[in-house]
Amino acid sequence: MALKNLCCRTVLFVAFVLCGYVxxxxxxxxxxxxxxKEEHHNAAQKIAxxxxxxxxxxxxxxxxxxxxxxxxxxxxxxxxKLEEFLLQDNxxxxxxAKKSIENAQRDAEMAQQRVQETFEAAAEALRTIxxxxxxxxxxxxxxxxxxxxxxxxxxxxxxxxxxxxxxREGVSPEAFEKIFVEEGGMPLRDDNLSATINSTNLxxxxxxxxxxxxxxxxxxxxxxxxxVRPIVENCxxxxxxxxxxxxxxxDLSEEEEKRVESxxxxxxxxxxxxxxxxxxxxxxxxxxxxxxxxxxxIAAQTSERNERRAAIERMEKKRREKNENNLSTxxxxxxxxxWVVEADEGMxxxxxxxxxxxxxxxxxxxxxWEGSDSVVWIISAIVILLFFVFILVVVLLxxxxxxxxxxxx
Length: 409
Known about the structure:
Keywords: Coiled coil, Membrane, Transmembrane, Transmembrane helix. By secondary structure, the protein is mainly α. The chain has two domains: about 1-30; about 35-145 and about 150-310, Ferritin. It has helices at about 1-30, 35-85, 95-135, 160-170, 175-180, 200-240, 255-325, 330-345, 345-360, 360-409, and strands spanning about 135-145, 155-160. The chain has a two-stranded antiparallel sheet with strand order 1-2. It is elongated.
């Protein structure tokens, strides 16, 4: 019975060892699969596409933050101009208006500060992404080992610049230089940057950019091995061939293969996972900052626009009152009125509607201008009459002079 159990254990042990050996051979053969040059080149192009996507996206975020900064400057300038004109009006009705415009100006200053912070954060995120994309890895390989002792092993190091390989094998150096030096590229081509000043458009743009990140990460994960493996294996081969103790053109040892596989996995994870994590972290940070800055800017623009509308209504009311009393509008009020109207073409449309409503009431218009028209007609008639009298007098004088000369002659 004991012998039978021993035989069973021996058979199971041998089967387990053989199974492990076969499995290792299968995985080793799979790991050492041949990757064609075309497959490697296609993988390099897709990874280069990921680089371009990340760079273009953060370039676009920087440009959009700059556009917001310009809008914040305009909003602050409008608030200051409106405040200057309101200070010229001593009407007691403008006291609350002055306080409102002060609040609008504070909103504009706050928006300007937040947008400036967003622009600086976007520029810093762009530098961070550029540094992360320009990465290197240090490949360490021990060669010349004898037996189980590592005393005679030689540790060799090789620095692999992956950005250089992407430039060399994914895109041309000229195209790569143009992509990463010139500003203005965007993953989502949007020629109308003014669309940034719209929370719906901006959120749509950000969501689509995020989807591109996820889609590209999946693509890179599928092709990472085809890009990384040939480079690491060639590097290991060159390091082994430099080892004079074992000769050239030899196969890698088991320990060397483990180091190759470990390094390949590390670089694959960096390309398909780590880069995405860094890009998404920076993107989300700028996304939140950009949204906050946009909200502040919209609040500032709304405050200034509401106060301008109130100023238009006050000026319209005062003008109606003065027209009723046949009073002319003061020059300062006219300049304020003209500036307020020019400040917003949309408000001009409202005024034109009100004017058309007044024109639709001819009786009121006739009553308004009836007095001035009568005066003009009377003055014109008097001038014409005086002119004819003057001509008649001149003719009579000339005739009298002619008769006098005839009598003398």
